[in-house]
C-di-GMP-binding flagellar brake protein YcgR, contains PilZNR and PilZ domains
Amino acid sequence: MLQTPTANPGTSPGEQGPPHGAADTILTRLRELEARQTSLHVRLDSEPEFFSTRLLRLDPGHGWLFLEELTPYQGHLRVAPGRVMQIYTTLDGTPLHFQSPVLHTGEHDDAAFYVVEVPEAMDDAQKRLHFRTHLSGRSPVELIVQDRAGREYPGHLDDLSLGGLRALLPGEPPVDRGDLLQVKDLALPGEPPFACGLQVRFARQDTHRGGIILGGRFYDLEEAEAQRLLRVLLRLERERHHPAG
């Protein structure tokens, strides 16, 4: 049995949880993350490094989440009550972000755990998440988009986020806002080719580079692909803050 911090005897369980409104949705999502043992990716406060954990147990009565020890171990050494965990994950292909302050740290069966607050809010696919990795200054990341008629247009990424991408397509491909495309053979660094649906949010001419700048939002993103995309983004973020050499 995990040890738990002592609740304030003068506070009822309902007063310690998140406010009404989005609370039921948040708890439903947290229960799914707990049941599936989905990987959670954590950074502490605004530090650039990311670490991994899972949700061990949800205690909605007290408004607590129990998280397992951060890996790599350097992350665990930085955890202390009062620090804020910025937590990123995906659920059914939807990117999620929330933040929770650390209330308590403990140990059970020679493994550390943390008690953090149930969040009062979550960002989902309708909101921009907290990071977008710019790729235009790196080695080109190639992709192919395909329209409903089966026509294919090669291009390369400008930037990438959990919710979507922006790419340059050379020439004048006939794509417009609202079009539903398929992303094919997106060559993410260090990963097998990535594929999913893309809803076009904007498409405009870039006369300087000679092509169409296309911005879109992912749809029909499988959970495994969403987790893989998240891992790539976290790795790119680490490389951006700690470049090799």
Summary: The helical segments are 13-16, 23-36, 73-78, 223-241. Residues 32 and 74 are 28 Å apart (CA to CA).
